[in-house]
Write a structure and sequence with these properties.
CATH architecture: 3-Layer(aba) Sandwich
Order of helices and strands: EEEHEHEHEHEHEHEEEEEH
CATH topology: Rossmann fold
Number of domains: 1
CATH class: Alpha Beta
Number of helices: 7
Radius of gyration: 17 Å
Distance between the termini: 14 Å
Largest sheet: 9 strands, mixed
Strand content: 25-35%
């Protein structure tokens, strides 16, 4: 049986080669392996070059879309804010993600979001974002302290989330509450109209949501299930759900 093909959006990364900047399109391999291996899909990378890449033509050749996490934040103007916001920003990815979400859903193909991808999907459906969810002194800080510099330390920062009863996650995970890693500074401010909340943090911040259109399903989580999923049974269950949605 042929495996479905899942598109992974790229980020713009500027490498230093030969003493000068050399822009690249990149996806961290933990997303490719963590997601594609456990979903059972063939990964294809989609560059965030909106002047070059036709989102409708690309999605016509794929079975679904994954919007990965990233060190960059969405530009506030994308969700109607005139605040300067906190970078780094990746405006081409902002544009490419919005075009790809629309193309995928219009073609009846599922969209999955992780961290930045979760935020991009909230903006696409009409929501807004905030940049203070990890401000020191909050009831719950959603990112490890800035003194933690290594990836294992960052992803060791965890908190519980309450799974909404009756939703996709509740059915897939079979749990009322799970522990998730938390590595984000930006989060949902106003939740987009029409989306279904799938999970919340103890401070009320939305951590997962789904959207069911006439022809497709969108599912997004704020945490990082791609980080060492082999040690996280709930991540494996989440990816199994994604695999079922991708196969339908």
């Amino acid at each position: 049986m042929t495996r479905p093909i899942l598109g992974f959006i790229c980020c713009r990364r500027v490498l230093t080669i030969g003493g000068g900047p050399d822009p690249a399109q990149a996806v961290m391999e933990r997303y490719i392996h963590g997601v594609a291996d456990n979903v059972g899909a063939i990964p294809v990378l989609i560059p965030s070059l909106p002047d070059l890449v036709d989102a409708d033509a690309v999605m016509a050749r794929l079975d679904g879309l994954l919007l990965t996490g990233s060190p960059s934040n969405m530009e506030p103007a994308r969700y109607g804010s005139d605040a300067p916001g906190d970078g780094p920003f990746d405006p081409d990815r902002d544009a490419m993600s919005q075009a790809l979400i629309g193309a995928s859903l219009s073609q009846g193909k599922p969209v999955f979001g992780i961290c930045r991808g979760f935020q991009e999907m909230n903006v696409y459906f009409g929501g807004t974002l905030r940049g203070d969810v990890s401000t020191p002194g909050r009831v719950l800080e959603h990112h490890a302290p800035d003194t933690v510099a290594d990836l294992p330390g960052m992803f060791a920062h965890r908190h519980p989330v309450a799974i909404a009863p009756g939703g996709l996650l509740a059915s897939a995970l079979g749990e009322a509450e799970i522990s998730v890693n938390s590595v984000h500074y930006q989060g949902v401010d106003q939740l987009a109209p029409g989306v279904i909340v799938e999970a919340r943090a103890p401070d009320g911040v939305v951590e997962a949501f789904s959207v069911q259109t006439e022809t497709a399903t969108a599912l997004a989580v704020q945490w990082h299930p791609e980080w060492k999923p082999e040690g996280d049974p709930n991540a494996i269950k989440l990816f199994a759900l994604m695999g079922r949605l991708l196969a339908t």
